[in-house]
Specification:
By secondary structure, this protein is of the alpha/beta class.
Length: about 375
């Protein structure tokens, strides 16, 4: 195994409890493996970077008069869009370096002595510093061997970027914002498709009344009209409106989160990491063939994993129903022979699933399950 990446979108109207969920989630999945709760949000060691847009976009840019402006011609509207675009670019840059093994770049980030003078510098400083902090936190909690330079302990240094420090772990980027339009979330799905990494969404749903009550006790209150308008315009994740939103979970955030909710969150994250977004085929002829080969290898690999799980489930069920060992052996041989024939057909391009079924895990699984039954019955 190697390092994996996941972008988790937290969306919902102000006051829905997104930041509370993000804080608890970060605390749970960042614990050292030996201290994980029974919940086991993620099974592998994890570096979690929580990006709260309220910490990146200045509060002086009022979302009520800017983000919901229907004309989109005000000066603040352009500034607000520039901040959001730079967040996307910065996350893209970080993930690119993680995928390519260039994590040492973030260890060497200098301490900022002066306030950033441009939107791009401001956003990069906040987000990259947050990512660097998450790397240091991981090294501390997992007791990696070398010392780390910290404030107040300038004599200690860290040999940053040692390859073995960050192999076989998961990098989770929690994007905490309202994301009330589907297009806002789609920008991050495109990053995942670009780098063939995992993507999922959690919609924190609550009534406007609950959100307004919570908002009344916040230090940085959002205007009530903004919450009401945003709730009216909010485009909740809906697979019927876009199949790319399949990896989504809606949480009833009106009440305190229960253990079953955390189990559902855990299942979503694990499933997303098991089934990363498939890259889009590039139209350039030379790159198109390279992309096709890469997609084919990924398709065969995922198909093999799915088929093996299906066979394991079938054999377990047969054992539980009391099937004789001789019959189970015969069934196992037939199922594995069927698996090999299906993979060969995929490899030889004699068989290709419809694009939607290849791109989305649940549909691909149904497609392969039917093939497995057909091949087994023909043997």
């Amino acid at each position: 195994m190697t390092r994996r990446c996941l972008i988790l979108i937290l969306c919902g109207i102000p006051g829905a409890g997104k930041s509370t969920l993000a804080s608890n989630l970060e605390r749970d999945i960042d614990r050292p493996t030996s201290e994980r709760s029974k919940r086991k949000t993620l099974l592998r060691a994890t570096v979690t970077t929580w990006i709260c847009f309220d910490d990146v976009i200045p509060h002086s840019i009022d979302v009520g008069s800017v983000a919901l402006d229907t004309n989109g011609i005000t000066k603040d509207y352009g500034i607000w869009k520039a901040y959001r675009l730079q967040i996307v670019k910065t996350i893209d840059d970080i993930i690119s370096k993680v995928i390519n093994g260039d994590i040492s770049h973030f260890y060497e980030l200098p301490e900022q002595e002066h306030e950033a003078t441009s939107i791009s510098k401001h956003v990069e400083e906040i987000i990259k510093t947050a990512f660097k902090s998450s790397l240091l936190k991981y090294l501390d909690q997992n007791e990696c061997g070398n010392t780390v330079s910290r404030e107040g302990d300038k004599n200690k240094t860290r040999e940053f970027g040692k390859k073995n420090d960050f192999e076989d772990i998961d990098f989770v980027f929690v994007m905490d914002d309202n994301f009330y339009y589907r297009s806002m979330r789609y920008q991050y799905f495109q990053i995942c498709r670009k780098y063939n990494i995992a993507f999922c969404q959690i919609h924190m749903h609550c009534s406007v009344d609950v959100a307004l009550e919570r908002n009344s006790s916040r230090n940085n209150r959002v205007p009530d009209d903004t919450i009401i308008n945003m709730a009216t315009r909010f485009e909740a994740p809906d697979v019927s409106k876009g199949s790319w939103e399949e990896m989504s979970l809606q949480i009833d955030a009106a009440n305190e989160l229960i253990e079953d909710t955390w189990i559902s969150v855990s299942a979503l994250l694990c499933k997303a990491l098991d089934y990363p977004v498939q890259p889009m085929i590039v139209e350039d002829q030379q790159q198109k063939e390279q992309s096709r080969q890469s997609c084919l290898r990924s398709l065969i690999h995922q198909g093999d994993q799915i088929l093996r799980r299906l066979i394991t489930e079938r054999m377990k069920l047969s054992k539980e129903t009391g099937m004789e060992k001789s019959e189970m052996k015969m069934q196992s041989e037939k199922l594995n022979q069927a698996r090999q024939e299906i993979l060969k057909s995929l490899r030889d391009a004699n068989l290709s699933p419809p694009p939607d079924e290849a791109s989305y895990p649940s549909r691909f699984k149904i497609f392969l399950e039917k093939l497995l039954d057909d091949h087994k019955n023909s043997l």
